[in-house]
């Protein structure tokens, strides 16, 4: 039993809940006070180094989410497996947790190799992936700011594969995709906040991903959004240290192996 049962379908929630969560969670970060002592970059640095205005970022994210919603609707329609009573049997909590873990591994694997190839292929980087790196200093609501083709290949197809291979139901996918969206937003928030559960539990966090967005780190830390295992296995892992700046906030310093 979930709170939306009887009001909207699991498929509708699976399509639109991640979009709503993205803007609520990302918007929360956007509306926070300056919090200079927790920032990985100063706001002045962000204004000077970022190459795209906020309005363009918002439009780009909305376009990607439109495509995601269309693909999700088609995916749920094709995989629908309702019983004669119009309901779908939900597996046990343990099975759902296993499916979510499998989906996390699938998504990480897909995104690591596609992401890395988009850096190594000069044509793809110049014409597609470089759009995401126009946000040299990332911020929360820019997490899904990508070229539309990259959004389709990296995020939308990655999510579809995770859903299909894990075998999760539409109801389970609501929890998984909302969690994945929150993690992705958090990885781009640019803040190192005390008590942040994502930063405490995951080595692949906002500081880890910040290394990738800086000029000296674009050949490292491709892993997203959950684990750093592929970086470690394939030699693209760049460790870091957090150093407190005199003017407040933190500096993320790469540590060469």
Automatic annotation (TrEMBL):
Record localization: Endoplasmic reticulum membrane
GO molecular function: aldehyde oxygenase (deformylating) activity; iron ion binding; oxidoreductase activity
Membrane topology: Multi-pass membrane protein
Annotated InterPro entries: Fatty_acid_hydroxylase, Sterol_Desaturase_Related
Keyword Plastid: no
UniProt-listed GO biological process terms: lipid biosynthetic process
Domain Fatty acid hydroxylase: 101-236
Annotated TM spans: 12-32, 52-78, 93-114, 135-154, 160-182
Reactions that this protein is recorded to catalyse: a long-chain fatty aldehyde + 2 NADPH + O2 + H(+) = a long-chain alkane + formate + 2 NADP(+) + H2O
Repeat found in the keyword field: no
Annotated Gene Ontology cellular component terms: endoplasmic reticulum membrane
EC number: 4.1.99.5
Pfam family, one: FA_hydroxylase
Top-level EC class as recorded in UniProt: lyase
Keywords: Endoplasmic reticulum, Lyase, Membrane, Transmembrane, Transmembrane helix
Family designation: Belongs to the sterol desaturase family.
Record's protein name: aldehyde oxygenase (deformylating)
Protein's organism: Iris pallida (Sweet iris)
Record lineage: Eukaryota, Viridiplantae, Streptophyta, Embryophyta, Tracheophyta
């Amino acid at each position: 039993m979930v709170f939306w049962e009887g009001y909207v379908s699991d498929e509708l929630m699976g399509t639109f809940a991640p979009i709503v969560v993205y803007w609520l969670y990302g918007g929360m970060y956007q509306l926070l006070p300056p919090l200079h002592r927790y920032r990985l970059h100063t706001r002045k640095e962000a204004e000077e180094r970022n190459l795209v205005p906020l309005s363009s970022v918002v439009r780009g994210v909305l376009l990607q989410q439109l495509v995601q919603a269309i693909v999700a609707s088609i995916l749920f329609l094709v995989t629908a497996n309702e019983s004669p009573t119009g309901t779908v049997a939900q597996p046990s909590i343990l099975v759902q947790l296993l499916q979510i873990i499998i989906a996390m591994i699938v998504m990480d694997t897909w995104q690591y190799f596609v992401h890395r190839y988009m850096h190594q292929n000069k044509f793809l980087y110049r014409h597609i992936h470089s759009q995401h790196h126009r946000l040299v200093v990332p911020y929360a609501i820019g997490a899904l700011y990508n070229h539309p083709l990259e959004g389709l290949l990296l995020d939308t197809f990655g999510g579809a594969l995770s859903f299909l291979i894990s075998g999760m139901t539409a109801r389970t996918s609501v929890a998984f995709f909302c969690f994945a969206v929150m993690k992705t937003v958090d990885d781009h928030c640019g803040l190192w906040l005390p008590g942040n559960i994502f930063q405490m539990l995951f080595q692949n966090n906002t500081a880890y991903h910040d290394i990738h967005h800086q000029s000296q780190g674009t050949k490292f830390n491709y892993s997203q959004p959950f684990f750093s295992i592929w970086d470690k296995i394939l030699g693209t892992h760049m460790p870091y240290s957090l150093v407190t700046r005199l003017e407040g906030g933190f500096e993320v310093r790469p540590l060469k192996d």
